[in-house]
Amino acid sequence: MKVMLKCIGLSSLLLATTVFAHHGWSEYDAGNTLQLNGTIEESTYSHPHSIVRLKTADKIWTVVLAPPSRMENRGLSKEMLNVGNKATVVGYPNRNKPEEMRAERIIIGSKTTELR
User: Fold this and answer.
1) N or C: which end of the chain has fewer CB within 10 A?
2) Domain that holds residue 91
3) Which stretch is the leader sequence (predicted)?
């Protein structure tokens, strides 16, 4: 019984730590909105957040998107993030990684998807 309680306690601690560590949005500067236009060079459609590498006129950005389930619920499919597609993203720059941003909105073709 003691072993079982220790396992439950440890599992709860690990879960709480993971959830807390995952949502560190303070690393993004919400007072500085960016709008980037570019071409998708690479994409992942996985949890906890999907990511695209977006090539703009001056560099390649890492764009952190929403979880796939949220994007699917709002009509943004995996295929819409295919390499070579043009995209516009609006969001906030990372305070410490000058090539990374967190997207609030993504526009692919004529489809605008709110991510938060």
Assistant:
1) N
2) 34-114
3) 1-21
The pTM score is 0.79
The three-state secondary structure class of 116 is: coil
Q: For residue 108, is it within any domain?
A: yes
| CB-count exposure of residue 88 (10 Å: 0-12, 13-18, 19+) | middle
Number of H helices, E strands in the chain: 2, 6
Q: Looking at the domain assignment, is residue 96 inside a domain? A: yes
56, HSE (Cβ side, Cα atoms, 13 Å): 16
**Mapping DSSP to helix (H, G, I), strand (E, B) and coil, where does residue 72 land?**
helix
Give 11 or 73, the one with higher predicted confidence: 73
Question: Residue 14 carries which side chain, given as an amino acid letter?
Answer: L
Q: What is the pLDDT of residues 24-62, one digit of tens each?
A: 789 999 999 999 999 999 999 999 999 999 999 999 999
